[in-house]
Design goal:
By secondary structure, the chain is an alpha+beta fold. 28% of the residues lie in helices and 15% in strands.
Length: 131
């Protein structure tokens, strides 16, 4: 999985709600390890959408977003942006988190153009390792 290291629940606020294992919140990408490292982590093939919603990506081996406590009931399973065969899914800790995530996508020209051009088809053509 790929999580955002910057989005960590405050240690001084444990009595309210600690959403996930390790105290992280925000977006979590479930993806096969080789695909996640190649296409979701920083590098020449990183997805514009993962750049938009994950400020400081951290790859976690042998884990799933569900195991880490992200909410499976509001997950975007097998996001077609990445190709259904790649089985990349997006999770959040609470349904309300989709609101700022949608704003981030709309505010990012790179994300908006990648979504407008065939929901990721243009990006996949430029980055064949991520088809």
């Amino acid at each position: 999985v790929v999580i955002d290291e910057r989005k960590r629940w405050p240690e001084w606020f444990p009595f309210f709600y600690r959403p996930t294992e390790g105290g992280f919140y925000g977006v979590c990408y479930n993806a096969p390890a080789s695909y996640a490292q190649r296409c979701l982590m920083p590098g020449p093939d990183q997805s514009p959408n993962s750049i938009t919603v994950i400020a400081k990506p951290k790859f976690v081996y042998n884990s799933t977003c569900e195991q880490r406590g992200y909410d499976a009931t509001v997950a975007f399973i097998s996001d077609p942006f990445y190709g259904v065969a790649n089985n990349v899914s997006l999770f959040v800790t609470t349904p309300l988190e989709w609101i700022p995530i949608a704003y981030l996508f709309m505010a990012s020209p790179a994300s908006m153009s990648s979504l407008a051009m065939g929901w990721g088809n243009g990006w996949k053509l430029k980055h064949p390792k991520c088809k």
